[in-house]
Amino acid sequence: xxxxxxxxxxxxxxxxxxxxxxxxxxxxxxxxxxxxxxxxxxxxxxxxxxxxxxxxxxxxxxxxxxxxxxxxxxxxxxxxxxxxxxxxxxxxxxxxxxxxxxxxxxxxxxxxxxxxxxxxxxxxxxxxxxxxxxxxxxxxxxxxxxxxxxxxxxxxxxxxxxxxxxxxxxxxxxxxxxxxxxxxxxxxxxxxxxxxxxxxxxxxxxxxxxxxxxxxxxxxxxxxxxxxxxxxxxxxxxxxxxxxxxxxxxxxxx
Length: 254
Hints:
254 residues; mainly alpha; Rhomboid-like fold; two-stranded antiparallel sheet; 10 helices; 5% strand; protease
């Protein structure tokens, strides 16, 4: 027998009843986890933080050679050789988003990720949240690659973090939450960005913000009847646009 709120039930009755109960879903299609200990536990958020910290430790241990190999750069001479995305090193569009040199830089980004990540991961689910983060990061690096000078280096998770800001606003609006604190925090970060353009890649921040918001719209406004298919197609279209931007810029530089 299986313990129930009103006495006991036989296992067959429990299984039969389970077949008729539809699992509750969030606005993005993720399972609703309300009971203590059954949530996402921010597994993806913690993993992303761990990857960023691991790369930071690698930079501290190895030095500038890792930075030269992983940072975003369009086309430049590094170690007496042409290098960069335009030279076929497309991996830089992703690796740059996990790369930090200064302690204050990674501290700021990881604290922001820890604040924004778990709530979004709970609403979107692990897979969708990971897709959001990576597409936002790609949006930031693609924007920087398109606009910045070809030999200007860029690194950091800030593009992805701003993507989470954009996504949080979209999700909050969809859930009719009070967005004023979040918008105020975003405005403060944008002001800091544009007051320090000498050290901060504003292109990556704006690119990540826009793409993160657009990706979130694709995830939380997909029709329920064909939600997964609509999400895959719409997010795929966003990625295709970013790939097109990268290819156009590459043709310009080569």
